[in-house]
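request received
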Amino acid sequence: MSEPFWKTAISKVEPNKILVRGYNLMDLVGKYNYAGLTYLLWRGELPSTNQSRMMDALLAACLEHSLNAPSVDAARFVASCGVPLQSAVSAGVAAIGDWHGGAIEQAAKILQEGITNLKGTNQSIEQTAINILKEHSERRERVPGYGHPTHTSDPRTKKLLEIADQTNIRGRHVELAVSIETLTEKFFHKHLILNVDGCIAAIISDMGFDWRMGKGFFIVSRTPGLIAHAYEQMYSEKPYKAAEWNEITYTGPPEKRVAD
Amino acid sequence: MSEPFWKTAISKVEPNKILVRGYNLMDLVGKYNYAGLTYLLWRGELPSTNQSRMMDALLAACLEHSLNAPSVDAARFVASCGVPLQSAVSAGVAAIGDWHGGAIEQAAKILQEGITNLKGTNQSIEQTAINILKEHSERRERVPGYGHPTHTSDPRTKKLLEIADQTNIRGRHVELAVSIETLTEKFFHKHLILNVDGCIAAIISDMGFDWRMGKGFFIVSRTPGLIAHAYEQMYSEKPYKAAEWNEITYTGPPEKRVAD
Amino acid sequence: MSEPFWKTAISKVEPNKILVRGYNLMDLVGKYNYAGLTYLLWRGELPSTNQSRMMDALLAACLEHSLNAPSVDAARFVASCGVPLQSAVSAGVAAIGDWHGGAIEQAAKILQEGITNLKGTNQSIEQTAINILKEHSERRERVPGYGHPTHTSDPRTKKLLEIADQTNIRGRHVELAVSIETLTEKFFHKHLILNVDGCIAAIISDMGFDWRMGKGFFIVSRTPGLIAHAYEQMYSEKPYKAAEWNEITYTGPPEKRVAD
Amino acid sequence: MSEPFWKTAISKVEPNKILVRGYNLMDLVGKYNYAGLTYLLWRGELPSTNQSRMMDALLAACLEHSLNAPSVDAARFVASCGVPLQSAVSAGVAAIGDWHGGAIEQAAKILQEGITNLKGTNQSIEQTAINILKEHSERRERVPGYGHPTHTSDPRTKKLLEIADQTNIRGRHVELAVSIETLTEKFFHKHLILNVDGCIAAIISDMGFDWRMGKGFFIVSRTPGLIAHAYEQMYSEKPYKAAEWNEITYTGPPEKRVAD
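response:
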């Protein structure tokens, strides 16, 4: 028998009823917050109070980073072109790539593999951290989730680790992530801070999330900011934002003649 | 003097500090929830506890509507093509148009104009409702925010009105929206329910939001669901979802010969 | 009977055969160029040699405008984020809005209405031009398709009008468009050139295109340039292009304290 | 000295002049076709007549494939939502991923590595084909560019190879691609046809294109079709295309009660 064309395990809509992962969504709204219901949507089970609180902080901590983010810059150019709000937000979301929020999934993968490989061995978390750093430095690759172009101590990391402590969510993945940070200087000749991507990666790993869901956190987190920027561009700025012709450095060949 | 190229009133990033609308974001995370901080981002001021609670419910109530939504359908086709998660979400956001969530801004505009025009007159809210219905039925246009293809009573409307009552946010815009619903049958020969778009429109109007921010609520609300569907499509379904050639009805001209 | 869910008059695919508007596409490739086949796709009939030539020039003339275009700027920010090529192009296409290429459809609508209203009257084209200019200047609106932020004489307009002459496609819509240009100074106190958007609008109107297809020309025309820029950004530039925090002018409120 | 923020080697805009790769674009329009100028944009040099002709055929051959393509399906859902034309096209372009047109770059990479590795050896093209097939079958991976879900003989491949012969562009990469096709049955127990992706990959490799430009061909090729479908959906179909709730198979858990 062939597969149904439209199929999902996420939710079921029928007249006057919306089930999410088996629960009537309207029984949950008001009891669980948006972040907690996002947990249900993504994990298939209801969160504890601590899990809801942690989810909320994860989504709130990187709400906004001004124009100092390619997604926001892209969204503002699009928003200046006479398009509806969602078009600018859509372009901003398209920018949440491997180098902009994407370190969450890369770091979560490394941390999860590190902790998985520890099982049944006598190896310490510190030794695992050393192995990860060694591999990356030998391949001359950055460890995803470490270092930041603007911050020398990422304020979001500090706050999220605090809440991970308060909610008893902090576990071995966070321990590994922090251990890597401590040792970065040995391998990369300068201290590389655990940035917000790496911190989210560690916490969602301790919460049991699949690393491939990593970008989802960053997308939800940044969407309200993208909306705020699109709105500001559309209603407080002049239309048609673009680089001026005389501020663009041309690096191509000098003018050539076309043969007749 | 020329305007600076990069300029915003939303936030300020400097090393180790992120100000949102003047507040240090890290002083707020944990005290305010994601929905409350979205309020700050969009409005420029901190929400009260009731406003935070209402924001959270507004964002939670339409988190998910299964494949019975063009944005989700679009996202799943894109997700089936060997692309990163954010590409599918981006395509889904692009679908949040005038006929898919867009009724929030259209309805909010009508409700806000209706209430504004009442000021300094003796006209009742009911009379305003009648005027709005009359104008639309004479132009043979639907009133945005009323009627639903699937639900005969929108479960989200009921829940959101409950919370608007509990938080003392319910005001004249909600009153007008409900009054219109009551009278729809007179003008359109069938009862048209106040749907979730119309309900959100009324509540955010009572909260003082600019109607042009309407789509923002729907976009944030649906993003976690778009992510869940993109993830399910990518990791639980076969690649390359497409209509089969023999299930497509061709309505064009019969085969023609090309002259030599 | 209900409508089929998947339905189109554009083309028909069956094993080993692709019909476009009734023609076997493979009978046409090599005989007709890409631009001519685009005409077939959009119009439903095969173009004449002159129509193919004109189509090709319309698509070629605005292939590229460097970073002096919001679509290209947006595409480059997205391309810098570690995403596949198509994501950057997709974001660039999303920027082809009412103020970036969109003047083609707005201008074509005005020109087509102008010429349609002339039918059966004794009114001259010049008088129609005057009416259009008068209406816009009274509403203090720009006439779409006139003026350019960079060019004082749009080189693309000159070239396209030349080819419209050579192909005998130049007709009353072009006449009206040129007449408007001649008279702009009278109504707007400075000469506003017929820009490439206005020129394409006039020519496609003389070719019989629906004005609502206007943006299609600009989208196809700019796509190769968007691809070139995405490629250059991805493979010749550093990752993560973003405005630096200290080059962003913050115009929001000064730092505030959060009450405990 | 720091790098300029806006920088490109592709083109230079100044008032009344647009240089592309050093040539005044307006000297070229009319002499070179759109496809030939796309070659200039992407390669940095003017094409020969044969190269222009080949480019044109490459872009024309996969103009359209009806709703039997995820990009078109996605575009139509988006187009049904009350959005501008470019939003639907943008979503369609976002779907040109690794499994939808993306085989061009994967196949071109394999073919180019195969031919590069041949240099200075006595190995035959057939032996290279065997090596490629062997590697893939041992890893239980498909060879990109071979096989098609709808066509048993891809009509576009036949036509493009014909034109590659006529233009003397057919070379060792095409030879290798055809050799692989001939041998597929030995390694995969059924004949896998050289599909249009594989064929384009081979031809652009013989033309000297970087394999990473592969998706560019498919994007340009499909854009006019995406526009035609968006237009048809917007102006000939009902708004809000979505899967009906009762046609969606729910595979999640049965309804659960929420504990009070």
